[in-house]
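From the shared-data thread, chain only:
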Amino acid sequence: MKIAIGSDHAGFDMKEYLRDLLKSEGYVVEDVGTHYPTPADYPDYAEKVGQLVGSGGADFGILICGTGLGMSIAANKIKNVRAALCLSEEYAELARRHNNANVLCLAGRFLNDESSAKILKKFLATPFDGENKNGERHKRRVEKISSLESR
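Structure, as tokens:
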């Protein structure tokens, strides 16, 4: 599984930590930056990760900024991206189960490394319910979200 990861300066340390964690667990990781803790504009990295995920060049994406809000807003402008700001494991599970989220956004200023790792692991381990017989409503809703991209 290939995962694209990116951050601005406020998410830099967490990105470095999660990138190394993912690599140690055998994931293929593409780090699109920032590669320095100096000020950086989050939309640049949301675009890079979003393009990889939206085009199928990565299975999932991870974006980190101070609050996670800017990254999620920017990434959701890209076709085929469903970015979700998750502040807990429960958010991550529901974002995957109900919304088939493919980009996880995290808040570098509000989460620590341990909690962000737990959220990430939950996100990656949770399947989309729309692929099973009882998940038709979730599949229908995600299809409606995708149809908004062409309007």
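The helical segments are 12-24, 42-54, 69-75, 89-99, 113-125, 136-148.
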